[in-house]
Amino acid sequence: MAELDGAVVGYVKLRRPTDLPSHRHVRQVNGLAVDPAFQRRGVGRALLLAAIDEARRRGAHRLTLQVLGTNPGALALYTGCGFEVEGVRRGEFLLDGEYVDDVLMAVHLGE
Ligand SMILES: CC(C)(COP(=O)(O)OP(=O)(O)OC[C@H]1O[C@@H](n2cnc3c(N)ncnc32)[C@H](O)[C@@H]1OP(=O)(O)O)[C@@H](O)C(=O)NCCC(=O)NCCS
């Protein structure tokens, strides 16, 4: 969580994608959000960099996430922190009558 003057202004969630032993080297960002009143001040980047450090500390070699193709701000944030696009599920979600891509991204954390 990110706090400012004792108030929560953002959070990031990190989890294992599955419980499979063969999947133990991977962690997933499973939620990242910053209060709209505190966006564009570096909070999202700080949370994401903390999640990368924590995933590495837990022994992960890969950190993955999914982001909607209609979210250019998040895509820019992830790319700026080293994530690369590994795949796109075209039209995966139907949102407000429009089919939206699900973009699969990952960063390699080293062995
Ligand atoms: C995406 C989100 C977490 C970014 O948080 P933030 O605190 O505003 O991000 P930062 O201030 O750390 O921005 C870091 C960089 O990300 C990019 N970025 C962030 N928001 C952006 C936007 N709205 N438009 C374009 N680029 C953006 C920029 O490159 C920015 O660097 P800069 O400010 O030096 O240009 C925030 O907008 C949010 O909570 N959005 C709603 C929830 C969401 O979409 N979560 C991600 C789901 S996958």
From TrEMBL:
Domain (N-acetyltransferase): give its ranges.
1-110
Q: What Pfam families does the record tag this protein with? A: Acetyltransf_1 (PF00583)
- Molecular function via GO: acyltransferase activity, transferring groups other than amino-acyl groups
Q: What InterPro entries is this protein classified in?
A: Acyl_CoA_acyltransferase (IPR016181), Bact_Acetyltransf (IPR050832), GNAT_dom (IPR000182)
Matching Gene3D superfamilies, A to Z? 3.40.630.30
Q: Which PROSITE patterns match?
A: GNAT (PS51186)
Record's keyword terms, sorted: Acyltransferase, Transferase
Name of the protein this chain belongs to: Acetyltransferase (GNAT) family protein
State the species of origin.
Geodermatophilus obscurus
Provide the taxonomic classification.
Answer: Bacteria, Bacillati, Actinomycetota, Actinomycetes, Geodermatophilales
